[in-house]
Each structure stands twice: as structure tokens, then as C-alpha cells.
Amino acid sequence: MVGVFKAYLTEKRISKKPEEFGRGSLKGLAAPETANNAACGGSFIPLLTLGIPGSGTTAVLLGALLVVGVQPGPMMLQDHPDVFWGVIASMYVGNIFLLILNLPLIPFIARVLYIPRPMLISLIIIFCLVGVYGVRFNTFDLYLLIAFGGLGFLMRLFSFPAAPFILAFILGGMMEQSFRQALTISNGSLSIFWSSPVSVTLFAVALISLIFPLIRKKGHKKSEQEGVKA
């Protein structure tokens, strides 16, 4: 989920026509879908090497492996090489089958676009309500869904991008937990965030990714002003 929104925001930042995003831009569709497919394989890396699930799907797989007596982690390649390489081989086989199945089915999948928009939206809302209620069978979750749906409608009405909000909502708890862990390790010293070359490099990359879109946007405005003057 995080990779999908991050890819969408990144593509929108570097695009020469960001105003097309949210209106059926092909790049806006391709970027998050590509990130979603890439994240599926990437989520297996922490599972197979550290025994930590990288997604909800790999968490289910972790439970299945533990049931049959296979412990994912550093020793998995030594203790269960057949399972390790079998999981990796299944990714290649799965991609081949997806290619074989999806190419002929594209015309039929595209017919979803011909469904009247009111009917499609109604079906999506029904599935969302059923899915949310099915998790905990709690009516409060339904009210929460409706409240956030109204918030999303207002954000769209006032042209406020929802993707950064969702990204911050998902990553907020993880960031706070990691921040507390880092301070616990350093006995409350903030110097831990710039005492390592790795952390300094990550800070530099984050700073560049924050400043570069602003510079690019300023350059676009300057070129537009020069074009108007000319």
C-alpha cells in the first residue's frame, strides 16, 4: 500500500503535466500498479531472510510455514533449501501464468469501464461496507468508514491531495515506534540520527527528494512566465 501511494506521488512530482493526474493519466495508472507488483516480490525479502513479514500476504504465508514446521529466517536456506528455492521459483512461475492469463483477458477486464459510473460506485461502496464489517463485526467501523469517506469527498472537493494524507496515516505509527526505539538505543541522544554514514545518506536522499520537486516547480513557473512575456 505504501509503495503504491509513494510511486503515485513521485510520478506526479516528476511529471511534466501533473495537472493530468487524477483525470485518467496513463502514467498515474502505470506507476502505482508497477510499484504494487514490485512490492509483492520485495515483501518476501524480510520474510525469508529475517522471518519478518513484509505485508499482510507474507504474514499469512509465515503462519502457514510455521504450521508445517518451517521457520523463516537466516537459517532457512540451510535447514529448508527446498522450501526457500521453491518460494522463489513460484514467483517466476506465477508471473508467467499471469502473463498467459492476463493478455487474453484484457478486453474483458476493460469492459468494466463500460459499467455506468453510479452503478460502479454503488458496488464499490457495498463491497467496502461488507469488507469493513466482516473484519470485526462492529458497527462503529461502518461509521468510521462513512466519516473518512466524507473527509475524502471534502478533500477532493477542495482539491486537497488525499495520497499524502493516507501515506502519513499509514506510516505515522511506524515512524513514532521507530523513533522511540532509536532514542531508547541511544539513551535519549538525538546524535544517533547523524552519527552513522547510512543515516546521513538517508537524510540526504530524503532532503533531496523534498527540495528537488520545489526547484522543478519553480523552474516550470519561471519558464511559463518567460513564455507569457515572449
TrEMBL record:
Pfam annotation, one family? TctA
Query: What UniProt keywords are attached to this protein's entry?
Result: Membrane, Transmembrane, Transmembrane helix
Decide whether keyword Transmembrane helix is in the record: yes
Membrane among keywords: yes
Q: Where are the transmembrane segments?
A: 52-71, 83-109, 115-135, 142-172, 192-215
Residues of the DUF112 domain:
3-167
Q: What PANTHER family does this protein's entry cite?
A: TRICARBOXYLIC TRANSPORT PROTEIN (PTHR35342:SF5)
Q: What is this protein called?
A: Tripartite tricarboxylate transporter permease
Please report the organism this UniProt entry assigns to the protein: Caldalkalibacillus thermarum (strain TA2.A1)
